[in-house]
Design a protein that fits this description.
8 helices, 2-enoyl-CoA Hydratase, Chain A, domain 1
């Protein structure tokens, strides 16, 4: 089972369960995320969802060998990237959240991370681009110059630095991210569900124009990058465990 689902009162917990693959998102995992979040959206009794990768790693992003499957009807990429749940989603992060893993985090409303967590968008090191919202969502969660640093260098930042700049809501000891996320979820779930939903709707609508612009701009960028010689070289170099030789084409 690629995704484990557990309900604790009004809170739904989704745990990515491919630790041997650093919780890379393959079609089965994306389908599991989508199914669980569809259930979350449709169940009146559920008020908050938490997505975590367990105590060792959050997610390294797409499975480069198997792919991540087709976008789902309600969730888009990974079953979550383009989802408007109407209810709060919390990311509970231990270890690395790289590439699509960080893009999942950026799809959530609140973030809890242990001090050992790291966030990064390393696609540029593979001749690729953070195509699942990372390029335009990072500036919404971080100061613009820090977002540019992450996107243009591909280097990760620590959880402490991410908290300093506002990406992380709660910083905690290692192994405690889920516990702290549950505490945060309890604080949200203690409030009137209609008030929470409507407040979140207003906040999301305020950001909707930027989201639409971001996705529109990504179409040409993704086509250019993914059809380039550098993209092919980056993927081959990664799989062959060698340094890429860029051509600039």
């Amino acid at each position: 089972m690629a995704v484990r689902v557990e309900q604790r009162g009004p809170i739904l917990i989704l745990t990515l369960a491919r630790p041997e693959k650093r919780n890379a998102i393959d079609p089965e995992t994306a389908a599991g995320i989508d199914e669980a979040l569809n259930e979350f959206e449709d169940a009146e009794s559920l008020q908050v969802a938490i997505i975590t990768g367990g105590e060792e790693v959050f997610s390294a992003g797409s499975d480069l060998k198997q792919g991540s499957g087709e976008p789902t009807e309600r969730g888009g990429e990974y079953g979550i990237i383009r989802r408007t749940a109407g209810k709060p989603l919390i990311a509970a992060v231990e270890g690395l959240a790289f590439g699509g893993g960080m893009e999942i985090v950026l799809s959530c409303d609140l973030v809890v991370a242990s001090r050992g967590a790291r966030f990064g968008l390393p696609e540029i090191k593979r001749g690729l681009i953070a195509a699942y919202g990372g390029v335009f969502r990072a500036p919404g969660a971080l100061p613009l110059n820090i977002a540019k640093e992450i996107v243009l260098t591909g280097d990760p930042i620590s959880a402490e630095r991410a908290a300093q700049f506002g990406l992380v809501n709660t910083l905690c000891d290692e192994g405690k991210a889920l516990e702290e996320a549950l505490a945060l979820a309890d604080r949200v779930a203690a409030n009137a569900p209609v008030s929470v939903r409507e407040s979140l709707r207003v906040l999301d609508e305020m950001a909707a124009d930027a989201e639409r612009t971001g996705w529109a701009l990504m179409v040409d960028a993704v086509q250019t990058v993914f059809s380039s010689e550098d993209a092919r070289e980056g993927r081959e170099a990664f799989l062959e465990k060698r340094q890429p030789e860029w051509s600039g084409r």
